[in-house]
């Protein structure tokens, strides 16, 4: 009831927590979380190879793919040298589960960072009123650290599989190509490589922040200061 009354008493902006590790690291988490899911979601790219038929101009083929990396979703066609209508060909592999899990962790991490920053800067008196706030914060932050570990590892493996499935050297081994196809430019995946790096950076930030939140909880016992001479009393005769 006291917490509700304190919360209803109004927002009081205090930028002091940003000068402390607790608030400063939370801001870094907020920024790197945005980078993590933004570099993954919305990505689109294409692989490239050419079909070289005798007596004809080379024809470019660009199989496209995009987040969430359900590769068979977008068909492409490989021109045939005999002039007949080619059948649809599909990229192989569905890597949406690891990609969507990674983005989901990032989005929820961003929302949690936003909520706790509002709490730190506007309702610090409520946050420190009881031990419940820091304790819940510690548990949730530790849970996110674990989720970043799992999702970044899964997405790193998924990205490796995406690279293999879209490698032009692999695509030209298609039965329709025979010996007429030549591998072209590899898809640009700098953004996706960065997303994995941001994922593991988030892991380190969230795991490291657990220590500073732990210091706000009652589990962290501050050692008693040594007694002064006055407290010890005058020495005996």
Describe the structure.
The chain has 237 residues and is mainly α. It has eight helices and seven strands, in the order ααββββββααααβαα.
Short note summarizing the structure:
The chain is mainly alpha-helical and 237 residues long.
Helix and strand topology:
Blueprint: H1 2-8, H2 21-38, E1 44-46, E2 49-51, E3 59-61, E4 64-66, E5 76-77, E6 88-89, H3 96-122, H4 124-127, H5 132-165, H6 168-171, E7 181-183, H7 190-214, H8 229-232
Antiparallel strand pairs: 1-4, 2-3, 2-7, 5-6
Helix pairs in contact: 2-3, 2-7, 3-5, 5-7
Nearest-integer average pLDDT: 85
Q: What is the straight-line distance between the termini?
A: 56 Å
Which stretches are poorly predicted, pLDDT < 50 over at least 5 residues?
Answer: none
Gross morphology: rod-shaped
Question: Beta-sheet strand percentage?
Answer: 5-15%
Provide a count of the helices: 8
Number of strands: 7
Q: Which structural category do the helix and sheet elements fall into?
A: mainly alpha
Transmembrane segments: 99-123, 135-155, 194-214
Domain MARVEL: 17-218
Protein name: MARVEL domain-containing protein
GO cellular component, one term: synaptic vesicle membrane
């Amino acid at each position: 009831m006291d917490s509700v009354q304190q919360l209803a008493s109004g927002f009081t902006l205090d930028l002091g927590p940003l000068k402390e590790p607790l608030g400063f690291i939370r801001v870094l988490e907020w920024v790197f979380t945005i980078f993590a899911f933004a570099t993954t979601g919305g990505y689109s790219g294409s692989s490239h190879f050419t079909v070289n038929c005798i007596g004809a101009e080379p024809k470019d083929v660009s199989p496209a793919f995009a987040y969430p990396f359900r590769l068979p979703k977008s068909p492409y066609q490989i021109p045939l040298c005999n002039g007949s209508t080619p059948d649809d060909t599909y990229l192989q592999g569905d890597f949406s589960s690891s990609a969507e899990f990674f983005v989901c962790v990032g989005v929820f991490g961003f929302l949690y960072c936003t909520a706790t920053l509002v709490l730190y800067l506007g309702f610090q008196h409520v946050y420190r009123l009881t031990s419940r706030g820091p304790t819940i914060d510690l548990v949730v932050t530790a849970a996110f650290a674990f989720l970043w570990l799992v999702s970044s590892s899964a997405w790193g493996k998924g990205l490796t599989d995406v690279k293999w499935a879209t490698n032009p050297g692999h695509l030209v081994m298609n039965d329709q190509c025979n010996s007429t196809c030549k591998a072209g430019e590899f898809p640009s995946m700098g953004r996706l490589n960065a997303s994995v790096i941001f994922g593991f950076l988030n892991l380190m930030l969230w795991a490291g922040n657990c220590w500073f939140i732990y210091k706000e909880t009652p589990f962290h016992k501050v050692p008693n200061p040594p007694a002064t001479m006055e407290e010890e009393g005058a020495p005996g005769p």
